[in-house]
Amino acid sequence: MPSSEIYFSTDVETDGPIPGPHSMLSLGCAAYTADKQLLSTFTANLETLPGAAAHPKTAAWWATQPEAWAACRTNLEAPEAAMKRYADWIQSVGGKPVFVAYPAGFDFLFVYWYLIRFTGDSPFSHSALDMKTFAMALLKTGYRDSTKRNMPRRWFDPLPHTHVALDDAIEQGATFCNMLRDNRNG
């Protein structure tokens, strides 16, 4: 098993802005090495939390995404089972796990909450690497100017962004590895 950092590019789909009152619907994760080797992937569609409800704005957005909605509502698992399977998968990949997301503030909020709630621990500790903040440092711009439209095209592989959690995790992981390459070569 590798002993270096493994970058777990993570994307979640939810039915609202925060966990608890709202649910994580889908979790996708792609484990990458720094040199952009895709080691393994994980995906789960979760049952909603008891007593939780969709946020009206999020529900309205989902109404515009029927294919992604259908994808995240098939083969549902109980959150307890999905998060245990996720934690076990991270351990099986090996290395030192680093949570990576765009934006990490949103995705990590849900993943960390669900990990603590349903497994009692987080393999990522309390840390997440935010791609937007990393872009700000690389581009030497303000945070609000470090959006995808202002990032160099060389950072983006021709991969789809479908709002299906695993597709987006793979796409964002490749982007992160390209950013990491530029950082290390620059």
TrEMBL record:
Name under which the protein is recorded: Exonuclease
Domain of life: Bacteria
Gene3D superfamilies assigned to the protein according to its UniProt record, in alphabetical order: Ribonuclease H-like superfamily/Ribonuclease H
Keywords, sorted A to Z: Exonuclease, Hydrolase, Nuclease
GO molecular-function terms, A-Z: exonuclease activity; nucleic acid binding
InterPro entries: RNaseH-like_sf, RNaseH_sf
